[in-house]
Write a structure and sequence with these properties.
Helix content: 25-40%
Number of strands: 13
CATH class: Alpha Beta
CATH architecture: 3-Layer(aba) Sandwich
Radius of gyration: 18 Å
Oligomer: single chain
Strand order of the largest sheet: 5-4-1-8-9-10-11-12-13
Number of helices: 8
CATH superfamily: Ribokinase
Structural class: alpha/beta
Number of domains: 1
Largest sheet: 9 strands, mixed
Distance between the termini: 32 Å
Order of helices and strands: EEEHEHEEEEHEHEHEEEHHH
CATH topology: UDP-N-acetylmuramoyl-L-alanine:D-glutamate ligase
């Protein structure tokens, strides 16, 4: 099936704390810079799988911006939607790990070149043959970025295209009021919803179970929901022909974790791409689990993106948890 994906948002460089439990308020060593940004990782993974993807963002006219653009271009992302700005610097993130599930970030996004992404940057000509838009919650960091997202969403939806949404919540971003306000709007148009298991409660009503929350969301119009559980695997929720809730679980893989950043983005990119390409749910989930597993084995948020051949090679050598 022929399709083309677009996504938009932050493209930045990331610096990783060299030691675990390294504090930001004390002098320490960092490793980097690495190309990063959740939608950029998503786009890179789509391209590595061999599918067409266009990415909209802004970077500074500096070495960091050049490095990020070159990396995406090298991996096959259509970079015509990335604008280099001379009056702003490329965004950045500093990351310190406590353990696999706990990370602290310092982001410079809204006040960087990323923060300049706006309605006017979304070139309709680049969206002419796009059939799917992927939205990252982390990319909704300003009213300008939200306006850009809405423009892309309207164009895609008006052509009969589909929307996927990954909340990608970060505790450092909970104070961005625009982000929370935009979630309800996006959920109205979402076809594929991709929360992590820790994010489900954010969308639940009162003390709902995961299944009750999924049932409510599906009845509100979402067609596919995948709850990402890392090494534990993933749960798929949909409605069968009788409008009854169906759930499919596919186990994950145990691997040595080097750097978990970007794993969820790689998972989402793989699942969405393969679903659009006509793969069955179980296969799309299995390949997405492998994609996420491979992502955590490399240091750097974008260094673990993988091709279909690499995913198939991994499957031939490993069994699920």
């Amino acid at each position: 099936m022929e399709f083309k994906i677009c996504t938009l948002g932050e493209l930045l460089v990331e610096f990783l704390a060299k030691e675990h439990n390294q504090r930001f308020d004390k002098t320490g060593e960092f490793i980097g810079p690495y190309p990063s940004g959740a939608p950029a990782i998503f786009a890179d993974q789509v391209a590595k799988l061999g599918f067409r993807v266009v990415f909209f963002s802004c970077v500074g006219k500096d070495s960091f911006g050049k490095m990020c653009i070159n990396r995406l271009k090298q991996d096959g992302v259509i970079i015509d939607g990335i604008i280099s700005r001379s009056r702003a610097n490329t965004g950045s993130a500093f990351v310190s790990y406590q353990d696999y599930n706990e990370r602290d970030f310092i982001f410079n996004i809204p006040n960087s070149a990323c923060g300049l992404l706006s309605f006017n940057h979304i070139d309709e000509k680049l969206l002419k043959d796009c059939t799917h838009l992927h939205v990252m919650g982390s990319s909704l960091y300003s009213f300008r970025a939200i306006d850009a997202m809405r423009k892309a969403l309207d164009i895609i939806k008006n052509k009969g295209g589909t929307i996927s949404f990954d909340p990608n919540l970060r505790k450092e971003m909970f104070n961005i009021q625009e982000m929370e306000q935009s979630f309800g709007y996006i959920m109205e148009y979402t076809d594929i919803f991709l929360p992590s298991e820790n994010e489900v409660c954010y969308f639940a009503q009162n003390d709902e179970s995961e299944q009750q929350t999924m049932s409510t969301l599906l009845n509100n119009g979402i067609k596919h929901i995948v709850v990402k559980g890392g090494a534990k695997g993933a749960n798929y929720y949909g409605l069968d022909e009788k409008n009854c809730l169906k759930m499919i679980h596919v186990d994950g893989f145990n691997v040595d974790v080097v750097d978990p950043t970007g794993a969820g983005d790689c998972f989402s990119a793989t699942f969405v791409s393969l679903l659009l390409a006509g793969y069955c749910i179980e296969t799309a989930l299995k390949f997405a689990n492998v994609s996420g597993a491979l992502a955590v084995t490399k240091r750097g948020p974008m260094e673990g993106t993988s091709s279909l051949v690499e995913i198939q090679q991994f499957l031939s050598q490993h069994t699920m948890v």
